[in-house]
Amino acid sequence: MAQLLQTDPELAQVILGNDLNRLQDLLRERHRQRSESRRRQEDELALLYADPFDVEAQKKIEAAIRQKGIDENWEAALEHNPEAFARVVMLYVDMEVNGVPLKAFVDSGAQSTIISKSCAERCGLLRLLDQRYKGIAHGVGQSEILGRIHVAPIKIGNIFYPCSFTVLDSPNMEFLFGLDMLRKHQCIIDLKDNVLRVGGGEVSVPFLQEKDIPSRFLDEERYSKQASSSGTAVTSGTADRSNNVSLGGGSRNDNMTQGPDFEAKVAKLVELGFGRDAVIQALKLFDGNEEQAAGFLFGG
């Protein structure tokens, strides 16, 4: 119900009111609106077919046929593969860094293991920062690479392992366990048993359930993608040299909410019964991606 209150407060309030007649009226009205929308689309298509040799009409017919295929594919996915629309919770495990308990974000798509400046300071590691490995991380936004901590102990399960860190000046990401350390310690991401196996299986730690992950971490997952291909090339003995690091992604379109394409996406999701404000927020959150926005709305 909490999910429904967020995605469709009108329907949620009607359900909580225990008024069956009002609920039926609301569902009938929404069905009528969807039927009218489909009828308008069919009428427009019929007008286009009335003069099929017109160039503009042919373009619109082609677009309508393409959109129909997309809609049918989307409906098939909703029926046969609904999991594709649900939000995927990222992989976190409990670790200790220099004796300080942390929630580590496990990301095999990240080139390097990353720790934020504030987290490194909290763990008592900032004094070991080697600033010869400074650089700039480019991607969705920009973060400064402050340097590298060459080795410090981390505890996974009951065993200690050596770990090196790239230090970012990023308040939105705390600790990311990247591919470099996953390889070094022969880690296995076992999604069947939902555990991270370390040292070829000598230690197994469970991935955290969503309820065990702090809510601020769930918001930070978007920002951690900035570091998903980060890493600094080693330039030994060069104190002032900076490395430009490409992190993938891209710049966000500031005018995303303007234009007919965005409004069409809003209208389509509203037809599914979601509130307009919730739809707009979901589309903004996923940079206009209609499928991901729908998955977020369905999955809460």
UniProtKB/TrEMBL annotation:
Lyase in keyword set: no
SUPFAM superfamilies for the chain: Acid proteases, UBA-like
SMART domains assigned: UBA
Superkingdom field: Eukaryota
Biased composition (Polar residues): 240-258
Region (Disordered): 222-258
Biased composition (Low complexity): 227-239
A single MF term (Gene Ontology): aspartic-type endopeptidase activity
UBA domain segment(s): 259-300
GO biological process, one term: proteolysis
PROSITE patterns from the UniProt entry: UBA (PS50030)
Protein keywords: Aspartyl protease, Hydrolase, Protease
Family designation: Belongs to the DDI1 family.
PANTHER family named among the record's database cross-references: ASPARTYL PROTEASE DDI-RELATED (PTHR12917), AT13091P (PTHR12917:SF1)
Protein name: DNA damage-inducible protein 1
Organism: Morella rubra (Chinese bayberry)
Upper classification of the organism: Eukaryota, Viridiplantae, Streptophyta, Embryophyta, Tracheophyta
